[in-house]
Every structure is written in C-alpha cells, then in structure tokens.
Amino acid sequence: MPQDTNSHISEVGRRINQLRAEIARHNRAYHVLDNPEVPDATYDQLKRELADLELAHPELSADTSPTQQVGAPRNEAFAPVTHTSAMLSLHNAFDINELRAWHERLLRRLDGRSPGSFAVELKLDGLAISLLYEDGLLVQGATRGDGKVGEDVTHNVCTISDIPTQLVGAPKQLGPPTQLGPPQVPKLLEVRGEVYMKLSSFEAFNELQQKRAEADGTKAKRFVNPRNTAAGSLRQISADVTAGRDLSFYCYQLSFATGGPQLDDHTSALKWLKTLGFPVNDHNRVFASLPEVETRVKELAEMRHTLDYDFDGIVVKVNDLQIQSELGADAKAPRWAIAYKLPPEEATTTLTDISVSIGPSGQATPFAQLEPVFVGGVTVGTATLHNEDQVRSKDVRPGDTVIVRRAGDVIPEVVGPVLADRPANSSPWVFPRNCPVCGEPLARHEGVAATHCVNFDCPRQIRGRIEHFAGRNAMDIEFLGEKNVDRFVTAGLLNDVSDLYRLDFDKILEMPGYLEKSVNNLREAIEQSKSRPLANLIFGLRIPEIGQVNAAVLAAAFPSIRQIMKASVEALTAIEGFGSVTAVAVHSWFATTRNRELIDRLEASGLTLEAEQSATTVPRTLANASVVVSGTFDGFTREAAKQAILSRGGKSPGSVSKSTLALVVGASPGAAKVTKAEAFGVPMIDENAFVDLLASGELPKGSR
Ligand code: IVH
Fold first, then answer.
1. How many domains does the chain have?
2. How far is CA 578 from CA 341, 547, 575, 653, 662, in A?
3. Which end of the chain is more exposed for a tag (fewer CB within 10 A), N or C?
4. Which ligand 1 atom sits nearest the alpha carbon of residue 284?
5. pLDDT for 461-510, tens place per residue?
6. For ligand 1, mutation pick of 144, 278, 315, 341 (most atoms within 8 Å of CB)
7. What's the pTM?
8. DSSP secondary-structure letter at 73?
9. Same domain for 474 and 422
C-alpha cells in the first residue's frame, strides 16, 4: 500500500519527540536522582529506536537530542568540575557480529594497517570517576556529569579505601608538598575508573537498612541494585554517609600524566598506575587477534555471577596509545573501544496478578503472574515474591509495571514497581485469608515470615506427603510420579501413604488413560517398595527435623520403628549428633495417635519396619572419624555422602574443626569450610579420593 509520506513523517516526528522526552526523563532519573525507573536494557532499546529513526530521517535530527549527549545534567548541590578532556561513553556491541563489525571499521579507518593488540577488560557496573593528583596527592574527584562538566565529589571519594589519597612514592606529609617525590611520581596525573559496590557489601547494606527500620518501627527503603546504591552513595552531601557504604574502585584508564614514564600502550599505563597504588582488575588481558579476543569474551561472559561484583559487559580496547589517538572519538564515544554488552538480566513487564501457591508442607508463597517477558535468556511468566513481608516492602500491586530480574540460574524475581507507571486506582495487595486449595484459614505465626495452610487434610499436603514418601531417597516408587499422585488423591483413592498399599487398581484401570501394562508396572513398583531399608522408610515419613542423615542415624541406633516409637526423649537425646530439638520432634511425632495408626496400617500392609541385616555388614572404615562434606558431586548427593560416612561408623558435622579427618570438596564448596580447612591443615579431597576413603579408611598418599 502506498503511504502518505507527509503523514508518515509527522507520525515519525511524533514518535521521535516522544522518545526524546522519555529518554530525557530516564536520564534525569538515572544520573541526577540515582533512581532509575527502568532497567538499562529498556533504556538501551529506547535509545536504539531513536537513533534508528534519526538515521532514517536526518531532517529530524537535532543537536539537543539525547542521542547527541553523554550522561545527563549535573546536580546543582555539587560544585561543577570542567573535565580536562570529555568523559565519553562507549559504543555497544550486542553480539559477536557487532563486535566483528567494529573490528572491520577499525581496519577500514587504518587503511589496512594492523590495529595491534587488544586489551580485554570487564565492563564494571558502577559509575565513572575522574581522580586528579598533584605531586602525588589526591586533589579532586569528579563524576562524569554530562561528559564535559561533572560534579565535585572529592570529599566522598576520600572515604573510599581503594582510592589512594597519596600515591606510592609521594612525600609523606599532609598539606602542600615542600619537595617533589621520587621521579616516578608525576607532577600532575588524571586517572579514570569505576566506583562500584561489591555484591556482599550491597546485601549487607540492605540488611542493615532493614534492621535499622525494624528498630525505628519504620518501613525500610530497599536499594534495588549495587550500581544505583554506589551512585547514590557517592553523590551525598555528607562524606560520613558515603564512608558508611563500603564502596570499591578499579582504575581502567590513564587520562594524562606529566612527569611520568614514556608509555606506549594502555596495558603499560595500567601497570604503571598499579605501581602508584591504584587497584587494577585482575581479569584484564591482552590479545594479538580478534579470534582470541572473542574466545576471551566468551570466557568472561561465563564468569558472570562468579564474582563479588556485577559486570554488564566486556570492554575491548585498542592497546596502542598512538593508534588510539589516530582513531579518535565521535561525539559520544571513542572509536578505539567497544563495549560487548551481556544479555540483560532485568526487564520491565506488567504484573497481571498476585497469586498464592501452596507447597508440599503447606507453605503459602505469593508469586507474581506476569505478561511473559524475555529476561536472563528465558521467557518468564511467573516470579516468586517469597512471603507477605516481601510483597509489602516491595509494594508491588496487580496492574503495576514491574522490573523483573533473572540472573544466571537464579529463579526470577520481581525487583520492584515502576511507580511512574502505576495505575491511578491501584491499592496495596492483601494476603488472602484462606488456602486457595482447601479453603481453610491460613496462619502466620508471630515472628515468622512464612504463612502456612495448617489443615493436615489439605489435598496439597496429602499430595506432598505421598510424593515425598514415594521419592527416590525414600521408598523410591517408580511409575508413581506427581501426576498420578494428583489424580489418585483427587479421585479419593489416596489419603495417606498407607493407602498406596491398598490401592484399588481396578478403579485406576477404569480411569481414562490407564492401560493394563502401566497399572501392572505401578503395582509391581509399589510391591517392591515394601522392602526398602529402614532408613528410607523413616525418611519417607517426613518427621520434622528428620532428613536423610538423621533418618540413617535413627535406623542405626534402633533396630525397628517399634523401638523408636517406645524410646524416651532422653534415649533419643543420647544419640550421637541428636540435639534435644530433634529428639523432641521424633518423640512427639511418634506420640501422635494419627501417626501411630499410620505405622499400624503400614505394618499390616506388609512393610518392613525392622533394620535389615546387611546394614551392619558395611565395614566400619571410618569408625569415630569426622569427615566434612561440601559442594555438589557428580556421583551422589551430599546427603548420600554423609549417609555413607555415618554407615561406616564416622561422623559428618556441618563445619570443619582441628579434629576433622578430611574435607570432601565438590563443585562450589562453602568458602568458610575451605578457609577453615586451610587454616587447620585439614586435607581436602575430591570425589574419587572420597570413594577410596570410604572403602579403605585411608587418605590418598601425599595429603597432609
Ligand atoms: S573505558 C572513553 N573500561 O563504562 C571511555 N570503561 O558505558 C573509556 N566502564 O563511562 C571507558 N568498565 O564508566 C572503560 N573496563 C572499563 C570499564 C568502563 C566500566 C564504564 C565507564 C564508562 C562506561 C561506558
């Protein structure tokens, strides 16, 4: 269809104006208020759309457009600082092809001359800072501001311990120097880098905010992410506030130096800055060719979520300073560098409703139903809201536009609402009074965050108990599965775990979708489960405090369920590794009539309630030895590893001590355990050595 050109242009013009206004609003929220309304990815998208429209319609471009500006207006509360050279931004590459296109452009600009080597660095997610030193003393710290003029935040910068106030080799006196330091200390030096907040500091800070609010009886202000917190913390009127925020710093650029050594490339410049006392990131590397750069980019991308700070991309820089200056910059960013952006982990979407799901033990968890949104590499339609307090502190409401975050393999979460887009008629969400499954009242106990359905007969809990009982680590009933459990409970065939052994298979055969063969398989699997080891049965009963390890301990301490039933609290407390809480939990479970009747029914159905003879034939290779297990393993669960230790006469406590025989280390072990093992000289062994240890009781040769 031919289009009316004039009306099309005016439509484009309207969209351009709309985008400019919206981007200007976001710029202010981000740079001045340190309180962005939308995630970076949404902002990037708006800017891209505007840049594309301006490119297609040059007649509508304007110098005042946000595409022509770097950063945003300054906060008037700080003295202005005119930068010695513009603090530019970086052009972005959103995939490997865009990185290659940047490389092609370099080659074209250099008329086929080689750009030389490339420096590859993390793109730290904080805020840019310029630091000025005279005769080795810090005299000024300034934010980027609009790129030309920034804000003087010297008083705050001085509180960041990573930032040297005095360079290594500078004369050691306060006030104006009376003599020059050693020759390597430059007369004048400007360094640029990123102020950021470590993830651990961010979490600690949010926790502190929460505690303070609880103490004052006020509502805690939750900080959304480390970047905004770092930016807000640096731009404080009072340095005392900044000092309490535990900010960090990495230096990524030598802006200029007078009186320093002759430097030919960026890497040497950073090396020199390191000798002067500036922190330089350990992951910086140099490569001779683009394919090597690409490999490193992928490597670094995989390191996301393994560090104690956020990075949102990888910066690739031409290393040679002469070639850098030949390539120069455009209005926004240098041509000699590019930021390879990692996929966004935050996105905005509409929260259509808040529902409550009931877990297998009755826990009532609120969750957000979302307009599906692509974030962190997957499409997300729901996100947990954890508990009532979290919904209240985030104050998210049905109808809100919300920021959703999914970082790595972590389950998606709602970060908070975009208040500017909140519908006028919205009101705070209220936790339902009744269980959505059984309709009975929900309960929340004083001082506890979780809400529960306390109806023992709630169908969700009945299903939960049966699923647990049939699970692989308990009675291991093949062919049962959650779907069947759900159907059988709904059909009234299953009310508790003992009903499994009285299942009416004829009725099941009458149900749609069940064939003779599958029903026979199920019958067979249930029959086989009757002779599972005592420890599996005990674990399957889901007695409070009794996980797999404690179940194994109980099974080793008593020859049968009937004996456990008769045991006093004192006898139970006397079990090695059992505290009084566990002992009381076991005692009261077996004292409850409903549970005693369940045991009677299980016995009547032919289940083995006694410890099997074979259990005692496992060699006691670890008698009285203490072996701690940490991390995840390929061949077994951590619980199974502990059980294996216990069944060989050993102990497997939760922490390392001087008397620990060995620490078994799997993937992602606990840092505290590893540190303690190192401190006490406790040998650390891998999965294979552990299997040998179980068999022989011997540690591998050469381990301390
Ligand atoms: S080099 C001319 N290197 O990213 C700009 N910047 O989006 C030279 N950033 O404002 C910057 N890590 O605050 C450079 N390793 C790194 C960086 C980095 C983070 C920030 C910097 C800059 C922003 C551009």
1. 5
2. 52, 12, 5, 11, 22
3. N
4. 15
5. 999 999 999 999 899 999 999 999 999 999 999 999 999 999 999 999 99
6. 315
7. 0.62
8. P
9. no
